[in-house]
Amino acid sequence: MxxxxxxxxxxxxxFGKALLxxxxxxxxxxxxxxxxxDLYAMGFDPVASGDDFTERRFxxxxxxxxxxxxxxxxxxxxHDIQAEIDKLLACDLLILQFPLWWFxxxxxMKGWIDRVFVNGTVYGAGGMRFDNGGLQGRKxxxxxxxGCFPDMMEPDGLLGQRDVIxxxxxxxxxxxxxxxxxxxxxxxSIQYTDEAQxxxxxxxxxxxxxxxxxxxxxxxxxxxxxxxxxxxKSHVAPRTAGHRRAQPGN
Amino acid sequence: MxxxxxxxxxxxxxFGKALLxxxxxxxxxxxxxxxxxDLYAMGFDPVASGDDFTERRFxxxxxxxxxxxxxxxxxxxxHDIQAEIDKLLACDLLILQFPLWWFxxxxxMKGWIDRVFVNGTVYGAGGMRFDNGGLQGRKxxxxxxxGCFPDMMEPDGLLGQRDVIxxxxxxxxxxxxxxxxxxxxxxxSIQYTDEAQxxxxxxxxxxxxxxxxxxxxxxxxxxxxxxxxxxxKSHVAPRTAGHRRAQPGN
Lengths: 250, 250
What we know:
The structure is a homodimer. By secondary structure, the first copy, chain A, is an alpha/beta fold. Chain A is built from eight helices and six strands, in the order βαβαααβαβααββα.
């Protein structure tokens, strides 16, 4: 496989960096090709703007998604964006690795998504989304560390159920783009672990990655599960954390 | 009330800007004091780094949240962060206004959250979170535009239910910090609306804001709803989009 790891952590001596290094060495030892986008080390600019396009279809007022569509057709993205799009399209497996900040990715990684998951390539007109998304045929997973404890992300846990917390990423970003989603790897309560536990996390992550090609993807819906009103057809049972049957009267 | 509107849109001639302008004029006409942080206009830096602190407790390796805690005690945040913290603490109502990008806020606004919702002030040790959070006594709401249609965010809609999509913001960011959450204002299918519909959205938003002090907040759980294991106590019924009773065997 070609694996793209997009990594965001401000500190090169962090446990996050140790996880990254272990993942690269493991994947390479399994015969995969690995590309890493280390966003902090690259000084990646996360702020979407008109400068993201070398020519503009609508120069008077920025319509970001429409300029993305145009640039997808004419290859007129700024160099830093095109380089990341090329890596993305070349991968079979995308891993986003980060510390969980405010129930999501750090801003520098959100900006990578905003600027690189472009209209016209990753999703777009003609129903190019979900199982018909531009990244179909590829898989993706989140790998993150967090200060919270496992019980907090249980369905009845303080922070809410894990797949609801991650919905905007796993369903909204990965799923929408056509990526099939693997279960996340989570390094829990990382501020409160000792050296032995950290080594255990590294070994657990290595174990996951060694068997990653055999893993089942998470359940998701097909576009054909939804009617022309964009609602689940009446015979389709909801099977994700973010879908449920609308109650009568809704 | 003191209202802080944090606004992120790259285009000053956008409908988003029209919404912002209408919200400011409406709130002022109601007698409120309004502060606006226009992140694109300010050139706000969204990338959390060691430069966010004028002195470091752990200079060898950046531990971002621990430096935030130290800076909260010693007032040693970088100027741009301290200015935003001051606005945040002075407000009674926080509004985040933005175009919904990838089921979340644009990166520049995620960076405002990462850098301004600081450990030791907004949340922290001693159980300072949720109804005991640092921003308790204040309210917050999301106001956003999106290309999607209303049916898509219904419980059985293509994108998943709205409060699951927004969970990381409404529960994870607002709720965790002690903010009570008002229903979001959503400008749906904004790319596909005509001038009349856009005026209707502006009027609807104005109407919301004129009655905003009387609105009920969204249901949430109290810290005391959870046991020492961080799970909902057995007699407490889940009442949010992100909590459900764990199934036997979970």
